[in-house]
Amino acid sequence: MNCGKLTLESMSQAVWYNQWTIKKFEQFLKGDILEVGCGIGNFTSFLTKYGNVWAIDINEQYVTEAKKKVNGKVKIGIGDVEKGNYFFKGQKFDSIVCLNVLEHIKNDGFALKSLYNLLEKGGCLILLVPAHMFLFGKIDKSIGHYRRYNKQQLGDVLKGIGFKIIKARILNMVGAIGWWFASKVLSNGTVGVGKIKLFSFIAPFVLPMEDIIEPPFGTSILIICQK
Q1: How many domains does the chain have?
Q2: Are 223 and 151 in contact (CB under 8 A)?
Q3: Domain membership of residue 37 as a residue range
Q4: Residue 80 has pLDDT above 50, yes or no
Q5: Strand boundaries in 17-172, DSSP class E
Q6: 65, 117, 176, 196: which could form a disulfide with 40 (CB 3.0–4.6 Å)?
């Protein structure tokens, strides 16, 4: 079973959550936008209203599926930020979106430097990564996570590369509770459609509170930084 693909397909059902997430950083989307690790295109089509979108992934099957979803509105192809190889040549971007991808990359430091080099001066990198190693469990392992992140430590790495941190915050406390219970207590190794449907029912009632106050813990860290 391809747990990574199953998770992507399950998350495609979380439309409200995906849109809520984009609203957290939409003000930083402009001009030429690159989505790194587009997967099967769960976020890709939402990005098109903000600028000219390119998208890359290392998986040919995912690229094929993503192309079907966007219907020719996005330039999509193979790209690997860990190796610095892309289907485009010489292109620089005003915004780079990297959502739930960095944790899958063994050499994440090199990948971040590659993203820095792909940005125009003054351009923004939008990172969403899993938070808190205490949440790391069977699900993380099954879907190919090397790690979960600490907000301060990741911010320090980005500053060391040359980025200026614009915004850094924790997201999705209710999701973290569910993740911990499923991964640590139930020892589940997948994020199935049933879990996502339950989360999608609960999320609109509780996540808007995070628009007012940052939770003490959550599934994710959102960092927006500028070159």
Answers
A1: 1
A2: yes
A3: 3-226
A4: yes
A5: 32-36, 52-57, 75-80, 85-86, 93-99, 119-130, 164-171
A6: 65
